[in-house]
Amino acid sequence: MVCGSGVSGAAGSTEQLTVPLGKLREAITIADPDKPRLAVSQLLARGLGNGVSVEMVLVKEATQLAVSVESFKSKLKSGMLKRSPPEKNYQKHERLY
């Protein structure tokens, strides 16, 4: 256990890295600060798998559930759709004739 970080597991050990669900919410929010809280909760629910509802995510987060990072990532990736960045980030190119 890393003191004060809420993260357990060590590099090179056979123990799985686990983090509190709230830390995963924080990571997603940092990665995409414009994502609405509901959308973040939906991602967390998908990462937990097994038909976990958004309401259950909030309960599990309040109880500081520790989640396996590898398991969360693999469940989150399944069914993940790639989204295009917002239009404002692209330069509009006009075709020259």
Write structural notes for this entry:
The structure is a single chain. It contains 4 helices and 2 strands. Strands 1-2 form a two-stranded antiparallel ribbon. α2 (37-48) packs across α3 (54-62) and α2 crosses α4. The termini are far apart. It has 97 residues and is mostly helical.
The poorly predicted ranges are 1-5
Number of helices: 4
Q: What is the chain-wise order of helices and strands?
A: EHHHEH
What percent of the residues sit in helical stretches (DSSP H or I)? 40-55%
Query: Strand portion, in percent?
Result: 5-15%
State the separation between the terminal residues, measured CA to CA. 63 Å
Biggest sheet statistics:
2 strands, antiparallel
Overall structural class, as computed from helix and strand content, comes to mainly alpha
Number of strands: 2
Shape descriptor: globular
Rg, alpha carbons: 17 Å
Mean pLDDT figure:
78
Spatial sequence of strands, sheet with the most strands: 1-2
Descriptors for this entry?
single chain; 97 residues; mainly alpha; two-stranded antiparallel ribbon; 4 helices
Record the SSE blueprint:
Elements lengths: L17 E3 H11 L5 H12 L5 H9 L3 E3 H9 L20
Antiparallel strand pairs: 1-2
Helix pairs in contact: 1-2, 2-3, 2-4
